[in-house]
Amino acid sequence: MSQDTSIVRRDHRAAILLLAPLLAGLPAAVLAQDNGGGGIEEIIVTAEFRSANVQDTPIAITAVNAEMLDARSQTNLAQITAQTPNVSLRPAGSSFGSALVAFIRGIGQTDFNPSVEPGVGIYVDDIYYSTITGNLLDLMDLDRVEVLRGPQGTLAGRNAIGGAIKLFTRQPDGRDDANVQLTKGEFNRTEIKGAAGITLIPDKLYARIAGVAKSMDGYVTRLDYACDHHLPPPGNAGGLPTYTQAFGCELGTEGGQSYAAGRFALRWEASDKFTLDFATSIVNDNSESQPGVLVAASPHQGSSFPWRSPNGPGSGANPFVCAPGDPWASCAPNNAAAAVPGSTQVPIYYDNNRNGTFEAGVDVPFDSRFVTGGTYHNYATYINDGASTPSPIFQGSSPAAGPLQNTDVFKPYVIDPVNTLHSWDASVNLNWQLTDSLKLLSVSSYRTYKNSFAEDTDGSPLAAQQLLQNLDHDQWTQELRLSVSKKKVDLTFGLFYLDQETNEDARVDLPYVGFDFIHGPDKVPATNKAVYGHAALHLSDRTDLSIGVRYSEDEKSYTFHRHNPDGTLPQPCALTTFAPGVTFPNPWFWEATNPANCGVFGLDGLGVSYSSNNTDYRIALSHDLGEATMFYAQFSTGYKSGGNNARPFFPSQSHAFNPETLDSFEVGLKTTLGGKVRLNTAIFTNTYNDIQLPTTVCFWAPPSQQTPCASQDNIGDADVWGIEFESEWHPSDQFEMDASYGHLNFDYSRVNPASSVTIGMISPYTPENKLSVGVQYSFNLSGGGSVTPRIDAAYTDSVYSDANNAPTNFIDAYTVANLRVTWRSPKNDWRIALEGTNITDEYYYVTSFDLSRNAPGYIHGQPPRPREWAMTVRRDF
Questions:
Q1: What is the pLDDT of residue 571?
Q2: Could you read off the pLDDT of 324-373 as tens digits, one per residue?
């Protein structure tokens, strides 16, 4: 076993470490020995490239082992940080596919597009996962998870500005063992897991294999609106089509799972000086689209769409956007009611009599009648039959507008409600012990995945926004580490290289702006090259000084491709004469005078490139105040590469943005009080510069082409500070309790005045307070064995889901409680567990997608799983 993942013995000062069997629900222990009488276990981590007790590691770090994950009924990566302060992991909504929205201390990323970099680094056995897509990992055959908070530029394979989450799987080590477990639960949940370690050649060759297969029905039901509300058929006043194919009004579900994954690992101990580790894993996920409900629909309220001034350029700062005082009420901001004769502002409606004009009482508008927030159903059809008009911003005709463009030539359009992921990876670790004190490690890896995901986030039988997106990703990484261990110093020197390419393509059907085009395949190649060094100087028996430095170079390019659905290229928008001698390209690309999709004319073949370099460093001083208490202080910097606007609506919106950087100062105290209580605390302050966040105003583009906009850019700077507590109490062998608390204060110190973000807002998915508590008691049975009930509760403060904070993307605070009761046999070879998750049936939104200030005018929310019960039977051999 390599030094990075081995179990080591330490002298009495650090306590003796053994790998002891863990009872159900031990606190966050990883590799540890029970001290007896309810003592605290010690935890071995590898955060500084060497095995060390977490209490001796001068980093804010949480470690969790497989037994603890089982005790908390946590089965995927998004769930593991419920008990980790200032860490937020959430499965992305249906608009972002099989992605993990990860934030640590207010730093992260919500966008799946490879044009932007993650703010939190994800690693599996030291292999860096370079995108947030494909990171909703099942926690299969894990040894431990390490969550490192704060910048890890000198402590991980690649820069991780917010922090890093490292998963370590069970490795082949000569212990021949096996386990299998079956879980049955609500929503027809069936889950089978198994793992086995095998000795192929004693003392030479070992293997380990693990697999999981699970299926579950969706928990959000899609209903046919016309059937559910007994509406007349189309052509009648208030009629809508019905798409039911059988008895009842159900069309299908969202959130259903059909998932299988496997892993194979091989270890060859060629000699006592050389070890080879090979591992490969595969994921075959054929799940349904992520679940969602329509939270609000009010297309007339708060839109930032650039309404046209019928008399020509408006009088506001943007000469093409209406402003107060412009003639005609239809030109006012915030979608004031139209006053153009024969004109009505209704962004989306079902045109019952097919006359191209909205008629109240006859046609059916997209509005609050389709709202289902607070329930577990929606009215999404994933169908655009062409009868929902494409972009009737001004219906009828006017002296300046004329009849609307007809994009129904590309309809009907039907997509399957899917979120599929097919991935494969392989890695080879070569570990040479060159001398007693010199070691060389080579880590080589390849990873590929394909993710296809559908979106019908308007949650109605009408068509406001409907997409099917595909990501095809390949990455190669190579890392070399040379480690030197001496009595007074531990040194690590490293080289890191990442080469990746992602192709994205999509059918982009946005009727509210008259778009229906093929996006891509957009090619996004990128490389990262880095050299780093880290030294842990042992100044005395009680004092260590850690110093790290890293130099990075990043290159990225983006090539756009845009076509009409029939394969033809979009044509340029027509010229419009506003007054004699005053002619402009018509930016209102939905009008009949313009050809279809002319708004994206000129993007096909256009490329944008980006490059940067940066030097990061870290200095940490730690001092043992006694046998059980360590104080540390550290200063570190972080860096995240820049990127490109992946979603320009005009060529002028193609744009590269700059890196973001972080300066962080942290002090912490780690102590075990009396051997029965562990208390770790950290206080930090960050200076966060050139923050990359989504913006709805492309302020670098010409005034007529600043909206619509869906870009990333450097929004501004912020000062962030926070405090974190983690504690465990083991008063006896039977009773255990753990708790954590995190507080975060995020304040912008500067914002770009042209952006939609203002002083007083905060970054997305950044709760001010986060609190958890877990309690368990093990009852010994008279005939042997035990029964252990455990309850966990986690409170998450309110957050905003959008960088442009508003009541429409505000998610209320919530508390989630889980219960688990585990029976263990006298020989500890059988386990039966009854679990209840979200036992209070708390309803909240995991994520939300806020388009209320855009022309479609709706809010889509991802509800949590409701209260569920399941039973698991496990057998160890």
A1: 87
A2: 333 323 333 333 333 333 333 456 788 887 776 778 888 888 888 999 99
CA distance 132 to 113: 9
Burial track 554-582 (b if 16+ CB lie within 10 A, e otherwise): bebbbbbbbbbbeeebbeebeebebeeee
Q: How far is CA 722 from CA 105, 370, 558, 664, 666, in A?
A: 8, 41, 37, 11, 10
**Separation CA 426–CA 445 (nearest Å):** 6
- pTM equals 0.86
DSSP 239: -
Q: Is the dihedral of CA 335, 336, 338, 344 positive or negative?
A: positive
Whether omega before 587 lies within 30 degrees of 0, making that bond cis, reads no
Query: What is the DSSP pairing of strand 127-129 with strand 142-149?
Result: unpaired
**Residue 592: band (very low, low, confident or very high) from pLDDT cuts 50, 70, 90:** low
Query: Taking Cα atoms as reference points, which of 133, 128, 87, 138 lies closest to residue 110?
Result: 133
Residue 412 has pLDDT above 60, yes or no: yes
Q: From 400, 395, 407, select the one nearest 345 (Cα to Cα).
A: 395
Which of these, 99, 94, 46, 107, lies nearest to 77 by C-alpha position?
A: 99
Pick from 418, 384, 422, 80: which is nearest to 218 by CA? 418
821 and 418 Cβ atoms separated by less than 8 Å? no
Q: Is the pLDDT of residue 724 over 90?
A: yes
Instruction: Report the 10 Å Cβ neighbour count for 203.
Output: 8
204 pLDDT higher than 90: yes
The greatest distance separating any two alpha carbons of the chain, rounded to the nearest whole angstrom, comes to 98
Distance between CA atoms of 97 and 135, rounded to whole angstroms? Answer: 11
What torsion do the CA atoms of 630, 635, 641, 642 make, to the nearest 10 degrees? 130
Distance set, CA 109 to CA 78, 414, 418, 657 (Å): 14, 30, 23, 15
What integer best gives the mean pLDDT of the chain?
83
DSSP secondary-structure letter at 760?
Answer: T
Token code pair at residue 815: 């508390």
**Burial zone of 736 (CB within 10 Å; 0-12 exposed, 13-18 middle, 19+ buried):** buried
Please identify which residue in the block is written with the tokens 């500067």.
Answer: 750
**Phi/psi at 96 (5° precision):** -125, 10
Q: E strands of 434-542, at which residues?
A: 438-455, 466-485, 489-510, 515-538
